[in-house]
Amino acid sequence: MTNALHVSAPEGVPFIDFSRELDFPVAEVFRAHRDPELIVQWLGPRGLKMEIDHYDFTTGGSYKYTHTGPDGVAYDFSGIFHTVRENEFAIQTFEFSGYPDVVSIESQTFEDLGDGRTRLTAHAVYPSMEARDGMAASGMEEGLGEGYDRLEELLGTLSEKTPQEAS
Amino acid sequence: MTNALHVSAPEGVPFIDFSRELDFPVAEVFRAHRDPELIVQWLGPRGLKMEIDHYDFTTGGSYKYTHTGPDGVAYDFSGIFHTVRENEFAIQTFEFSGYPDVVSIESQTFEDLGDGRTRLTAHAVYPSMEARDGMAASGMEEGLGEGYDRLEELLGTLSEKTPQEAS
After folding, report:
1. Strand A62-68 and strand A49-55: pairing?
2. Is residue A167 part of a domain?
3. Searching chain B, which residue's CA lies closest to the CA of residue A17?
4. Activator of Hsp90 ATPase homologue 1/2-like C-terminal domain location, by residue (chains A, B) (predicted)?
5. Residue B160: band (very low, low, confident or very high) from pLDDT cuts 50, 70, 90
6. How many domains are there within chain A?
């Protein structure tokens, strides 16, 4: 069984908060957020093809990637990492090519729960209520949930390749 | 006489909006936002000493500067430029060292009003109502207003040095 994704879009303020626990150590979870060769294997919903233009998960670094659906339609995403602290914390901007100049900002905490488990907690802030509501209605929750399920599957595969206490 | 600064902090949402017209052409106003040697002469309230660590006003660039008050107390500010379009538009993150990891994001439009005049319009978004209210109560409006007054004084000085239609 997988861990549950908790998402909330509070009334009246342009935020989306979510959290997800993972049955893997914080260093492994962080590595899967930093290494483009791993990110490309889990970020986003199933059934999309992801291609990374660049992904520099460091303070001051930037990223750009494309998700292509089964219909061949491509979606570009890009942003900048304002802060990245290893195994701990990141703040990044986020822009979808379909809504140019509508840029959100997301902070993400990597919390070591002990026993080789991690909790991810994120707070995303949108420049308008319309932008927040549009994101919440876009299938974001399903995409996030599938992404984290894929992340756990990937980390399970990596653990099998290099046995450790992880799982 | 100087142009008026209009600031609003709308009820219930974590935004601050402001606008300011300037009696100078958009290219001059933009240049004063890009060139660190000019920024250091106007950004922030009167009576503070500004020192720039770095200020790279380009897409993907970053900045860091320090304001030091007459009491010798120093305040650091830093962030990243998500987007910069010449004479037109910029989006940047903003962090004050006094509130680490509380990062806001601000979009700014440079609008050519014709006749050598420009309107700056900005929309700043905070990660919580508390952060927005704290910023609004921090003397931000006075600091912004004095900064733009200083900007007009600076641009006036530059126009005298290189005569043009500007003023």
Report:
1. antiparallel
2. no
3. B127
4. 23-156
5. confident
6. 1
Question: In sequence order, what are the beta bridge partners of B17?
Answer: B8, B123
Phi and psi torsions of A156, nearest 5°: -65, -40
In this structure, the dihedral spanned by the alpha carbons of residues B150, B156, B162 and B167, taken in order and rounded to 10 degrees, is 140
Q: Which amino acid is at B127?
A: P
Cβ of residue A11 closer than 8 Å to a chain B Cβ: no
Compute the C-alpha angle B1/B21/B66, nearest 5°: 95
Q: Which CATH number does the domain housing residue A51 bear?
A: 3.30.530.20
Answer yes or no: are the C-beta atoms of B56 and B62 closer than 8 Å.
yes
Which residues does chain A have with pLDDT short of 50?
A: 166-167
Count of residues making up chain B: 167
Flag whether B161 is in a domain: no
Instruction: Answer whether residue B50 is part of any domain.
Output: yes
**B80–A89: do the CB atoms touch at under 8 Å?**
no
Interface check A103 vs B, CB under 8 A: yes
Q: Supply the pTM of this predicted model.
A: 0.93
Digit-coded pLDDT (tens) for B120-138: 999 999 999 999 999 999 8
- A84 lies within 8 A of chain B by CB: no
**Nearest CB neighbour to B127, from listed A81, A83, A125:** A125
CA angle A58, A105, B88 (to 5 degrees): 100
Residue B116's pLDDT is 97
- DSSP symbol at B70: T
Q: Residue B6 forms beta bridges with which residues?
A: B19
* pLDDT at B161 exceeding the cut of 80: no
Task: Return the residue in A59, A121, A125 with the most chain B beta carbons within 10 A, the one to mutate for interface testing.
Answer: A125
- Please indicate if any CB of chain B lies within 8 Å of the CB of A125: yes
Domain containing residue B52: 5-155
